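Hi support team,

I'm filing this because I wasn't sure whether my run with zinc ion finished correctly. The job status page said complete, but I'd like someone to confirm that the output block is well-formed before I use it downstream. Pasting the exact inputs I used:
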Amino acid sequence: MWKPKIARSLAGPDIDSLHLMGSRCGTCGKKYFPARKNCPHCMTEDTIMDVALSDAGKLHSFVVCGIAPPGYEVPHVQGYIDLDDGGPRIFSLLTDYNDEKNLKVGCAMKLTVIRKESGTAGVETVEYRFAPVESKKETA
Ligand SMILES: [Zn+2]
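And here is everything the job wrote out:
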């Protein structure tokens, strides 16, 4: 049976409805991504629980790189997104922005799950990216 390798930070009932999984401290309420086994804010590990994170957020900052690791497209755009519903701020590669002029600090972003062939022959991975909610297509 065909089964892609799904990033551990994603969970959901099926491949088309995956969401980010992080953790939340039941003592102080801070959320973390990737998930942690303890809370560095209040130094507890007894009340950490897995939690589904928001699929939406605002772009905090980003950088456009002219080079990329093998297997990644150029330009290679990385950013930090402040997730809605209390965060956290997460790192992500960015996609579907059409033109980097569509990326603005503070613009609304949404989770996008992609399928990608990894370097290992025949292995498909499922990973997350963030894309602007509104990205203007270039007009010819
Ligand atoms: Zn805590």
